[in-house]
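We were asked to recover a plausible sequence for a given structure. The inputs and outputs are reproduced exactly as logged, with field labels preserved.

PROBLEM: sequence recovery
POSITIONS: 319
GIVEN STRUCTURE:
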């Protein structure tokens, strides 16, 4: 989502030379990503609605998936706060996905209402930044009351903290830059590249911490256990290269030439999508289909978008 915001802003730059046909292909590619993001968020909101209704109607029977390390009024209150805040966060993210879808629709219209589209995209980015802040009660619960092993609590809370600290400030800053994009083009591009880089790094940290948790609990033997070793190699190679590519893309913007940045972020987007595709195939082949839903499935269309950017990137110098 963030790399598409970064690259979508480039069409607004008067110096970027890109044909109308190429831009139409680009817009359709972005639409596929945003629509999949919308569907992905809607799916999790629907599942969470059922869960929120269940714990509301039967609060006495509620127990968090992690269990309680300490069962007292404070721990129960924190657990319910975690659940309801998480559901509220998904409502916020659904609104964010709706704004993003509407902004993309505006870009696809023939009258090209780009100013209004930029406003809606800015609203979506602010809401996405707020969504990550909904993880705060979960971090508190994991560190104080979760019955999981301490290593698991630290790794899970570390993943949440990484997503909050990397994504929320960068997204809100990008939203502010998008509001004034016509005056500060380079500032917008740099803000978008930071958001894209931070999201990719946060995703990488999340997966790495999952494998770290497994190592801490089971030792290193699982590294030589097929097929789990394949899953680890997918993260260690594909997703790591994606994060490095995003860092390279952001670093290349030290010079006022966006062509290299587009290519690097295109590579990063492609690799992120490939990582998710391999994860999905892995779960299907080895009879763990129930885990497919936990992958970032909305990133699958990034494969096509990323490849397009690798082949059709603008080589432009900005003043």
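RECOVERED SEQUENCE:
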């Amino acid at each position: 989502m963030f790399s598409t915001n970064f690259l979508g802003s480039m069409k607004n730059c008067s110096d970027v030379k890109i044909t109308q046909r190429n831009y139409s292909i680009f817009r359709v590619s972005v639409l596929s990503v945003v629509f999949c993001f919308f569907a992905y968020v809607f799916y999790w909101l629907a599942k969470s609605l059922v869960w929120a209704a269940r714990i509301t109607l039967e609060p006495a029977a509620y127990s968090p998936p992690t269990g309680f390390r300490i069962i007292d009024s404070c721990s129960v209150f924190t657990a319910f706060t975690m659940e309801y805040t998480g559901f509220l966060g998904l409502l916020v993210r659904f609104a964010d996905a709706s704004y993003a879808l509407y902004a993309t629709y505006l870009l696809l219209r023939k009258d090209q209402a780009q100013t209004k589209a930029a406003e809606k995209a800015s609203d979506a980015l602010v809401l996405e930044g707020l969504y990550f802040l909904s993880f705060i009660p979960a971090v508190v619960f994991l560190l104080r009351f979760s019955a999981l092993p301490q290593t698991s609590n630290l790794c899970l809370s570390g993943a949440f903290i990484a997503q909050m600290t990397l994504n929320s400030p960068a997204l809100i800053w990008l939203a502010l830059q998008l509001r004034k994009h016509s005056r500060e083009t380079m500032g917008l591009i740099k803000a978008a590249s930071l958001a894209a880089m931070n999201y990719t790094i946060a995703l990488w940290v999340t997966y790495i911490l999952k494998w770290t948790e497994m190592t801490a609990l089971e030792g290193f033997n699982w590294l030589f256990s097929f097929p789990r070793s394949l899953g680890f190699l997918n993260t260690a190679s594909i997703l790591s290269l994606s994060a490095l590519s995003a860092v390279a893309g952001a670093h290349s913007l030290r010079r006022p030439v966006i062509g290299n940045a587009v290519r690097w972020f295109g590579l990063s987007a492609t690799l992120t999508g490939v990582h998710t595709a391999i994860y999905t195939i892995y779960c299907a082949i080895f009879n763990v289909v129930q885990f497919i839903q936990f992958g970032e499935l909305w990133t699958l269309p990034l494969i096509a978008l990323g490849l397009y950017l690798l082949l059709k990137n603008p080589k432009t110098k900005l003043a």
